[in-house]
Design a protein that fits this description.
Number of domains: 1
Number of helices: 2
Distance between the termini: 67 Å
Structural class: alpha+beta
Radius of gyration: 24 Å
Number of strands: 2
Order of helices and strands: EEHH
Strand order of the largest sheet: 1-2
Largest sheet: 2 strands, antiparallel
Helix content: 10-25%
Strand content: 5-15%
Oligomer: single chain
Length: 74
């Protein structure tokens, strides 16, 4: 059997393939397929109290746009 870098097949004591381990850093072309099938998803963002407060301030219009070049002249 051909060996492919980044893919390991684990077999039972009888030699039957049971698991396959794939190094996704070497096989990035498989990531869209795994996302499509639902194996990989973005982790949920845990909002802290500071983040929730910032979101509320933005919704209320309490946020000011700042020019990066004139950052100290607020």
């Amino acid at each position: 059997m051909t060996k492919i870098a980044g893919i390991t097949v684990e077999r039972t004591s009888r030699g039957i393939p049971r698991y396959v381990r794939i190094d996704l850093s070497k096989h990035k072309d498989l990531i869209p397929f795994l996302e499509e099938k639902g194996f990989i998803s973005e982790p949920d963002i845990k909002l802290t109290s500071k983040m929730k407060k910032s979101i509320k301030e933005a919704e209320n219009g309490e946020v000011k746009k700042v020019d990066f070049n004139n950052f100290w002249e607020i």
